[in-house]
Write a structure and sequence with these properties.
Layout lengths: L19 E4 L2 E4 L3 E9 L5 E8 L4 E9 L6 H15 L9 E6 L3 E7 L6 H8 L12 H20 L2 E2 L8 E4 L9 E4 L6 E2 L6 E2 L19 E2 L2 H16 L18 H4 L7 H8 L10 H5 L10
Antiparallel strand pairs: 1-2, 3-4, 4-5, 5-7, 6-7, 8-11, 9-10, 12-13
Helix pairs in contact: 3-4, 4-6
Length: about 300
């Protein structure tokens, strides 16, 4: 896939006052949008996510608020600003679109496209325990479509000089295609931990970050990391989506051969999927397959009986 690097640095032109408007009280969401429900709120978190309805277009959008009163350090403030700066620069079919944003004295506001199946992957695995291998045919074509979308999104952000740093099922969102015979589109969201790559091809992180069971081995306090971090996460995501559990459950140690027990993987042994996952889970970051290389992997061309 060819990536126009100019698209990695510019935001789309938005009609004046389409989303956020200036009022005497400050910046507010345009009155054409009404709150429908709260999608996420936690007393310990500065983040609130709300579903909004557009009375003009009859569609939904998502409003993410970050309460500054609950952001206690300069590093957290800078992290919030970095999230906005990075997300606003990314425009791709496999990335959740940031529609508008602003910072006020009391909060950060981010308006994003609504993905109706925002909890599909976590619900499927963590709630219903229905991995892909529970289907009689392993649902190979759907799994291929989803993995292709994730990799295409990763390839794009990596070519734009961005490391996501928190790839996991909960940060993958589904948006149905207009044509019902096509698989839904997977979109990558939540750039709260993302980083820009510097001229060395990576970046230093002050502290270990990410979601515990998806963190790559090299992610530690004061570590230098590259886009290979996201590839590690992708490998674990594919493992979990396919069989419902992480290889760690089988007492696997990074650096060892990934244990693909035939009992769980027999529907995929001739597809190339296990080879792709193995190439993502190399202990040495430089030995991991890249997103671009993975998109050319024979998993995507395997014949399904």
């Amino acid at each position: 896939m060819e990536v126009n690097l100019e698209d990695c640095t510019k935001s789309p032109e938005l009609p004046s006052h389409q989303y956020l408007v200036e009022t005497k009280e400050g910046v507010e969401v345009n009155t054409r949008y009404t709150r429908v429900s709260t999608l996420y709120r936690c007393d310990a978190s500065p983040t609130t996510v709300e579903l909004m309805y557009d009375s003009l277009t009859k569609t939904h959008i998502v409003l993410k608020r970050l309460n500054k009163a609950m952001i206690f350090t300069n590093a957290q403030v800078e992290s919030a600003r970095r999230e906005v700066e990075i997300h606003r620069s990314l425009h791709h079919i496999n990335i959740v679109e940031l529609l508008d944003h602003c910072e006020t004295d009391s909060e950060f506001l981010m308006l994003m496209e609504f993905t109706p199946r925002h909890d599909y992957f976590t619900e499927r695995i963590e709630v219903n325990n229905r991995p892909f291998n529970t289907k009689p045919d392993g649902d190979v074509e759907k799994l291929k479509s989803f993995s292709f979308d994730i990799l295409r999104g990763l390839e794009y952000i990596h070519k734009c000089g961005v490391i996501h740093m928190d790839m996991k099922p909960g940060n993958l969102f589904l948006k149905p295609e207009v044509v019902h015979t096509e698989y839904p589109i997977v979109k990558i969201g939540d750039f709260g931990l993302s980083r820009r790559i510097d001229s060395s091809g990576g970046t230093y992180i002050e502290k270990e970050c990410g979601t515990a069971k998806y963190i790559a081995p090299e992610v530690k306090n004061g570590a230098w990391v590259t886009t290979a971090v996201d590839i590690w996460c992708f490998g674990l995501i594919m493992h979990v989506l396919t069989v419902g559990f992480s290889p760690y459950v089988l007492k696997w140690t990074p650096g060892q051969e990934v244990p693909f027990n035939r009992r769980y993987w027999r529907k995929y042994l001739d597809t190339g999927l296990t080879d792709l996952i193995s190439q993502c889970l190399k202990l040495e970051p430089s030995e991991r397959i890249t997103a671009s290389q993975a998109l050319d992997h024979f998993w995507f061309n395997c014949a399904v009986d």
